[in-house]
From TrEMBL:
GO terms for cellular component: nucleus. One of its GO terms (biological process) is methylation. The active site is at C64. GO terms for molecular function: methyltransferase activity. It comes from Parnassius apollo. InterPro entries: C5-MTase, C5_MeTfrase, C5_meth_CS. Keywords: Methyltransferase, S-adenosyl-L-methionine, Transferase. The lineage of its organism: Eukaryota, Metazoa, Ecdysozoa, Arthropoda, Hexapoda. Its EC number is 2.1.1.204. Belongs to the class I-like SAM-binding methyltransferase superfamily. C5-methyltransferase family. This is tRNA (cytosine(38)-C(5))-methyltransferase.
Amino acid sequence: MHCAWNESKIGGEIVAAVDINTVANEVYKYNFPFTNLINKNIQSLSAKTLNRFNINTILMSPPCQPFTRNGNYLDENDPRTNSFLYLIDILDKFEKLEYILMENVKGFECSSVRKLFVDKLKECKFEFQEFLVCPSSIGVPNSRLRYYCLARKTAASWNFKRKDEIMSMIPVDYGIPNTLESIIEKDVSDKYLINEKLLRHGNIMDICFKDSIRSCCFTKAYTHYIEGTGSVFTAATPETVKMCFEKANSFDVGSEKYVESLKKLNLRFFTPKEVSLLMSFPIYYKFPETVTLKQSYRLLGNSINVKVVSELLKLLFN
């Protein structure tokens, strides 16, 4: 969110950042050492305390698990919604709040928590617009369909033309879609090569090339599982990949000869740096050495696309 705010070029000061994930906070502090970072559950902060910051804008990404299949779609019955429900409850207590941007997973738009949130926005005299947007729709070569809500009190001066339904596009001219070549690192360590155990599942891999203008959504389980966790990369040509898979599939899937046929492709995982660039983080954004590879992928899998949020912020303040 901080990176998106910076990219949007909107003036203002980040007065506080709040999170309870200690690893996320470590990375945040490493990149933004001078920002007031509060390592607490927001439920421990009263409206009176929050008003001392003179907040006029909130950017937030509440826990998404209650609105996912893995979280059993427990919705407001999931205790992980408590922090967001608390914020909804005290929304009318903010003395200077004018702007809100909220992000969550696709599925939130069907939840009871969404209704509670929208009803509270109306009660507090906010105008709002909801979105279901994928980064690929603005030229980013990555899929990450997410729900967003923009809310603003000064609606009379809001130049953005809103619609009653959820919008699926951000009205922005992004030009020619980017390819993956611009984010691919050189001389990548062999530790990112896909091991034999995972190569046995080669037929379910989503393979990308330097000229690809797409990649699958990266999740926190990336590198631990193959299916549905994100794409893999090869420097080989599509023709070479096709030929190797034709040979591999002449053997039993998962067999030793099958795996040997795929080894020639040097299939590898995207590095954390490459994933962060696909999610539009700035080139200077880094992970401290104390953060492990697994932790890096988990944080990225729970993160947002910076470009999408920065474009939405421009609409919010238009």
